[in-house]
Design a protein that fits this description.
Length: about 230
Amino acid sequence: MSGLVAGYGATEVLHGVSLCVERGEVVSLVGRNGAGKTTTLRSVVGNVAPSAGTVTFRGEDVTDLSAEATVRKNVAFVPEERRIFPGLTVAENLQVGRLGGGDTAEARDPEAVLQEFENLREHPDRKGAALSGGEQQMLAIARALVAGADLLLLDEPTEGLAPFVVRQVEDLVRNLNDEGIAVLLVEQNVGVALELADRHYVLDRGEIVYHGTSDQLRENGEVMDRHLGVT
Ligand code: ATP
């Protein structure tokens, strides 16, 4: 995305955000509360209409596509609140993913996807509401895969999860990346971002204030302190 300006009503939240995720990469977008991370993801998937700038995916301008049309391009957004269907079973939630899925050959068979998720495959008949926070996060990601995602936008996937479940989500993201799925990861937890991503963008008050590799970010005490509140 390049020079993205977006907000809500008269309030401009993003003031010209540019970032890129190459094929097969994991890239993080980190920053304090309210910096505009979620708004950036929403702009990519067409939930927020940018007032300037462009979003391109595989060389195609997708800036003005609706949320539904963006999903059909195999870009999937897993929001922070996870939005699985609590009254539907694990298997049914995955079927729903297929309904909204991409229009290329990359949409995946729900059964096959389920087999990749150790925690979910044992109990395909459990209702969404009966799942733990970590299992709900896994299910939300699994549903995006069924829809055929090859760019996953994950909004704080480890939020509220116990440390051992955070490790499971990290393993999952690594496995997906090994399969060639690119990930744009929004994280409050800089440790998770450093663990998973190759490159990092730091967003502060709607502007990218830093871009670097994990080693560069780790060693940059000023950025860690001033923009991320980590010392
Ligand atoms: P957080 O981790 O707290 O979600 P964030 O970096 O993801 O932070 P955003 O959620 O993108 O930040 O919010 C950026 C700004 O936009 C905040 O000031 C927030 O209050 C505002 N905002 C977010 N959603 C809306 C909305 N639907 N309507 C109006 N303002 C909003």
